[in-house]
Specification:
The complex is a heterodimer of chains A (422) and B (377).
Chain A lengths: L8 H19 L5 H19 L7 E4 L5 H6 L3 E4 H12 L3 H9 L8 H11 L8 E5 L4 H14 L3 E4 L7 H22 L5 H24 L12 H10 L4 H20 L9 E6 L7 H11 L1 E5 L16 H11 L11 H14 L3 E7 L3 H4 L2 H10 L4 E6 L9 H17 L1
Parallel strand pairs in A: 1-2, 1-3, 3-4, 5-6, 5-7, 7-8
Chain B lengths: L2 H9 L4 H8 L4 E4 L6 H6 L3 E4 L10 H7 L5 H11 L8 E5 L3 H13 L4 E5 L7 H22 L5 H24 L9 H11 L4 H18 L7 E7 L5 H8 L3 E7 L4 H4 L11 H11 L10 H13 L4 E7 L3 H16 L4 E6 L8 H17 L1
Parallel strand pairs in B: 1-2, 1-3, 3-4, 5-6, 5-7, 7-8
Helix pairs in contact in B: 1-9, 4-5, 5-6, 7-13, 8-10, 9-11
The chains are: A alpha/beta (422), B alpha/beta (377).
C-alpha cells in the first residue's frame, strides 16, 4: 500500500502538469486561447476532485460514456475513471506501479490497462476514494465488469447502468428507467436531491455543446485543416469531463472562432499540409508530444475521427431532460461502435473519407481494446475499396513498455512515404 | 456407451444428422450464445445447432486476421471455421449482445460469410422486471423476424411442443449430472462433456433417445470412478473433452462445472403456466437461468457456484479462462475470495480455446492436486 500522503499525489501531479502547461502557453505568443482555457478546465476538474472530501462533497467514480450530466445536476463531484488513468499516463509518463498493483489483485494482463491500472490505483490508495461507483456496459466488457471489484476495493456502494445494445423504442424506455433508478440510488446515497431545473439547463447547454462540436468538425473539412493532429483528444475530454458545463461552451466557442479565423486566412494546423488523415481510436497517451512533432515534420494532420468526433444527428430537449440524457447516449460518436456494426456505422467511414478528403488512415490498435481491434480488417477493407491506405499501429494507450517512440516513428515514416509515392 | 455422442462431436459441424436434415430440405440455424432461445428456431421447424470452434487448439491465421489477435480464441476459431466454409450449410445465424467477442463475431460473420438470415438480440445484463420486459420484446422481435423470413407462423402449440422437447433434454441431463454426485460416479467429467457437446449439435429428439439409453446403461453397468480429488471447472466456453481428460488422467475427477457448455446450458427448465404465453415462459427462462459472468450482479452466479460446489462435494475448483475473455477475468478476484472463504482452493488457468491441457497446465494441475491431497491429510 502507498502511504496516506501519497493518496493525492497522482491527482496533484495532474494538476501540477496542467498548471505548467498553462504557464507555458501563456508565455507563448502563438498559443491558442482555447488551449489556455482547456488546461485551466482540467486543472479545476482535478482540483475539485482533490478537495472534494475536505469540502464535504459527495464523489462519484464513473466509467467512460457515463451520463455525468446527472451528477452535475445533483451537485455530485464526478471522477471520470478512465480519463484519470489516461491523464496519469499523459502527465507522469508511466504508471507501471499501478498496473502491477492491478495484476496483484488477480486481474489478468489481457484486461485493458486503463481498467487494470485504475483498479491498481484504487487498491494502492493512489486515487481519492469515491463515495459511490457508477459504471455501465457502454462501451465494452471492461466497462461493464469493472465496477464490482472497484466497489469492493473502495468499500463503497455502486450502481450498474445497463445500457441497451440497440436503438428500439423499448430499449430507449429501458434506458430511461435505468437512469431513473440510478437517480434514486444517488439520492439515497448522497442525501442530495436531483435538481430537475438544473438538469434542464445542463441539457440546453449540452445541446449547444453538440452543435459546437459539429461546427468544429465542419471547419476541419477545410484545406488546409485548421486543427492540430491530436486536437480531437481535447474534444473528447471536454465531452467526457464537462458535459453541459458553461466552461465547455466557452472553450468550444473560443476554439471554433480560432479555427474559423484560420480557415478564413487559409492557415492550416501544419505549415505545409501534405497528408489528410483519418484516425481510429486513441493514440498512446505517453506519445502525444511525439505524434504532434511528427505531424508537423511530415505535414500530416488528423482531419476526422468517425468514431470520436463525428456526432450523430438529433437535438436534445431541455423540457424532457431525462429523455435527452438517454438520447445523447445514442448520438455520441463512439456509440456507432457499440451496437451492431450495421450499414449506418460503416457508411460513416465512407462519408467521412469523402467529406474530409482523406488521403490515409491510422488505426491505433490498443492491445487491451478487443471490441475496437476486431474492426481493423473490416475498416481496412472498406478503405481499400476507396483506395485509401490504412496503417495499423499496435500500441497500448497507457503502458509505455508496449511501443517505443522509435518503433512508432519508423512505421509512420514508411506510411508517409507510401502516401507520398501515391 | 458414448460412441453415438463421440461420432457427432468428431464430425461436427457437418454431422450425418445435419447433412441428412439438409438433404430432406430442412433448415439449419446456428446460434452463438446460450442467451439465444433455441426453442423458437426449433418451433419454426429448423434444426438449431451451436456454432463452436475447432475441436482442438488450432492455428488461427484467418480468425486472427479478421478479428485481430486480441479477441478470444473462441470467437476467432468460430469465425475461421465460418470463413473456411465449414458452416456453409447454415440458413441463419443468431447472436446476442452478450460479450465483446460474441457481438464482434456476429458483426464479422454478417459482413464476410454469406449466411442468408442474421439476427442479434439485445440481452440485458440485469434480470429485473424491466429487464425481463425488454428481453421479452427482443424475443418477440426475433420470432417475428424468423416468421417473416420463413413465411410461416410459429404458433403457441409449436412453441409448447419445442419447450417439451427441450425440457426433456434438460431433465435427462440433470439425471446424468445427479449420477456425478455419487462418491464414485459412473461417468467421468470428460465423458459428460462429450454428451453435453452432442446435445447442442444434433436433433434434440434423437439426442434425448440416445441419452435415455445412456442413463439406462450407466445405471446397469455398476461402473464407478475413484479419484484422489473431486473438482469443479468454471470459466470460459470449453468444448474439448481432452482438457478435462488431462485433469482426470492425473487422478482427479471433474464432478461439476459452471460452463456455458455444461450446467449453464441445460439447467433451469422453461416453466410454463396458465398466466403466461409460451414465449413469455421461454423469455423468462433465458434471462434468469444460471448466469454467465456478463450478468449483474455477479453474486447470483457466485452463490450458485457455491451451491454446486456443496451439492457435488467438490474439494477444489479449476478456473479456466480463455485469454481475452474479459468478463470471467474481471470476476476471478471476486470469485477467488468467495471460494476461499468457504475453504475451497482454486487453480486459475489462462488457456486458449480448444486446449487439450498439455504441458504447463498438467504441471500446475498436478501441483494443485498435491496441495489438495496435503490439505485432506
Amino acid at each position: 500500500m502507498i502511504d496516506i500522503t501519497e493518496k493525492k499525489e497522482r491527482i496533484e501531479s495532474i494538476i501540477r502538469a496542467c498548471r505548467i502547461m498553462q504557464r507555458m502557453n501563456k508565455a507563448r505568443p502563438d498559443a491558442r486561447e482555447s488551449e489556455i482555457i482547456y488546461y485551466d478546465m482540467l486543472s479545476n476538474y482535478f482540483t475539485r476532485l482533490q478537495n472534494a472530501r475536505d469540502e464535504g462533497k459527495f464523489v462519484a467514480g464513473h466509467t467512460v460514456f457515463f451520463p455525468a450530466e446527472i451528477l452535475y445536476a445533483m451537485d455530485i463531484v464526478p471522477m471520470h475513471t478512465e480519463t484519470t488513468t489516461w491523464m496519469i499516463s499523459l502527465f507522469t509518463g508511466e504508471c507501471a506501479d499501478l498496473l502491477s498493483a492491478g495484476t496483484a489483485l488477480g486481474l489478468a494482463s489481457e484486461i485493458c490497462t486503463p481498467h487494470r491500472g485504475l483498479a491498481g490505483a484504487f487498491a494502492a490508495g493512489a486515487l481519492p476514494r469515491p463515495d459511490v461507483m457508477l459504471w455501465s456496459n457502454l462501451i465494452c466488457d471492461n466497462t461493464a465488469k469493472s465496477g464490482e471489484l472497484l466497489m469492493e476495493i473502495n468499500h463503497c456502494p455502486g450502481f450498474f447502468l445497463d445500457h441497451p445494445f440497440q436503438h428500439s423504442e423499448d430499449e430507449r424506455k429501458y434506458l430511461i428507467g435505468e437512469l431513473d433508478s440510478m437517480i434514486r440510488f444517488l439520492e439515497e446515497q448522497s442525501g442530495q436531491k436531483m435538481d430537475w431545473e438544473r438538469l434542464a439547463e445542463i441539457i440546453a447547454c449540452m445541446d449547444r455543446q453538440i452543435e459546437l462540436f459539429r461546427e468544429i468538425c465542419e471547419l476541419r473539412k477545410a484545406v488546409p485543416s485548421p486543427f492540430h493532429t491530436q486536437g480531437f483528444l481535447e474534444l473528447l475530454t471536454i465531452d467526457y469531463l464537462f458535459p453541459g458545463q458553461p466552461e465547455a461552451i466557452h472553450y468550444l466557442e473560443t476554439l471554433r472562432q480560432e479555427l474559423a479565423d484560420k480557415v478564413e486566412r487559409g492557415v492550416g494546423a501544419v505549415s505545409s499540409e501534405r497528408f489528410r488523415l483519418m484516425s481510429f481510436f486513441i493514440p498512446p497517451m505517453y506519445l502525444i508530444g511525439f505524434l504532434e512533432r511528427i505531424s508537423q515534420e511530415y505535414g500530416a494532420v488528423s482531419v476526422t475521427e468517425p468514431f470520436f468526433t463525428y456526432w450523430g444527428e438529433g437535438r436534445l430537449d431541455p423540457n424532457r431532460p431525462l429523455e435527452s440524457v438517454a438520447e445523447k447516449s445514442y448520438m455520441i460518436p463512439e456509440v456507432r461502435m457499440y451496437g451492431p456494426l450495421d450499414d449506418r456505422a460503416l457508411k460513416s467511414i465512407v462519408g467521412c473519407v469523402e467529406q474530409y478528403k482523406v488521403d490515409g488512415a491510422i488505426y491505433y490498435a490498443d492491445v487491451g481494446c478487443r471490441h475496437t481491434c476486431a474492426t481493423v480488417k473490416l475498416f481496412k477493407d472498406i478503405l481499400n475499396d476507396m483506395d485509401v491506405p490504412m496503417l495499423t499501429l499496435d500500441c497500448d494507450v497507457v503502458d509505455p513498455t508496449f511501443t517505443s517512440e522509435e518503433e512508432m516513428r519508423k512505421k509512420l515514416e514508411q506510411f508517409f512515404e507510401l502516401l507520398e509515392d501515391r | 456407451m458414448f460412441d453415438c455422442f463421440r461420432e457427432v462431436n468428431s464430425t461436427y459441424p457437418k454431422t450425418s444428422h445435419t447433412l441428412e436434415h439438409k438433404r430432406r430440405g430442412g433448415l439449419v440455424f446456428g446460434w452463438l450464445c446460450t442467451y439465444v432461445p433455441e426453442e423458437i428456431m426449433h418451433a419454426a421447424g429448423a434444426l438449431p445447432v451451436r456454432i463452436t470452434g475447432h475441436n482442438q487448439e488450432t492455428e488461427l491465421e484467418d480468425g486472427s486476421a479478421y478479428l485481430y489477435v486480441n479477441n478470444c480464441s473462441f470467437s476467432r476459431s468460430c469465425l475461421q471455421m465460418g470463413l473456411r466454409g465449414e458452416y456453409d450449410f447454415l440458413d441463419g445465424v443468431v447472436g446476442g449482445s452478450t460479450c465483446d467477442g460474441a457481438r464482434r463475431l456476429f458483426d464479422l460473420w454478417r459482413n464476410y460469410i454469406g449466411t442468408p438470415f442474421h439476427h442479434v438480440l439485445s440481452v440485458p445484463r440485469k434480470s429485473t422486471a424491466e429487464a425481463h420486459a425488454l428481453y421479452y420484446q427482443q424475443v418477440v422481435r426475433f420470432k417475428e423476424h424468423l416468421e417473416e423470413f420463413l413465411g410461416i407462423q410459429i404458433t403457441d402449440e409449436k412453441l409448447l411442443h419445442s419447450i417439451h422437447v427441450f425440457n426433456e433434454s434438460r431433465a435427462l441431463l440433470k439425471s446424468l449430472y445427479e449420477l456425478r454426485k455419487a462418491d464414485n460416479p459412473p461417468i467421468t467429467g470428460a465423458e459428460t462433456m462429450e454428451v453435453v457437446n452432442a446435445s447442442f449439435r444434433m436433433p434434440k429428439e434423437l439426442f434425448n433417445e440416445h441419452l435415455k439409453d445412456l442413463l439406462r446403461d450407466l445405471r446397469a453397468s455398476g461402473h464407478s470412478n475413484n479419484s484422489r480429488a473431486r473438482l469443479m471447472v468454471t470459466g470460459s466456453v470449453l468444448t474439448n473433452p481432452e482438457f478435462i481428460k488431462s485433469i482426470e488422467n492425473q487422478g482427479a475427477l471433474v464432478v461439476a462445472e459452471d460452463l456455458c457448455t455444461g450446467t449453464r446450458y441445460w439447467s433451469d427448465p422453461v416453466v410454463t403456466n396458465e398466466n403466461e404465453t409460451p414465449l413469455q415462459a421461454i423469455s423468462r427462462r433465458y434471462l434468469s437461468k444460471l448466469p454467465c459472468a456478463r450478468m449483474f450482479p455477479s453474486d447470483e452466479r457466485f452463490r450458485r457456484i457455491l451451491d454446486l460446489a456443496r451439492s457435488f462435494k467438490v474439494d477444489g475448483v479449476v478456473s479456466e479462462i480463455i485469454r481475452y475473455c474479459v468478463s470471467y477475468a474481471h470476476d476471478l478476484p471476486l470469485l477467488t475470495d468467495r471460494l476461499r472463504a468457504q475453504g475451497l482452493p482454486i487453480l486459475a488457468l489462462d488457456v486458449e480455446y480448444g486446449t487439450s491441457g498439455s504441458g504447463q497446465i498438467q504441471t500446475r494441475v498436478q501441483a494443485f492436486l498435491e496441495m489438495l491431497g496435503a490439505k485432506k491429510r
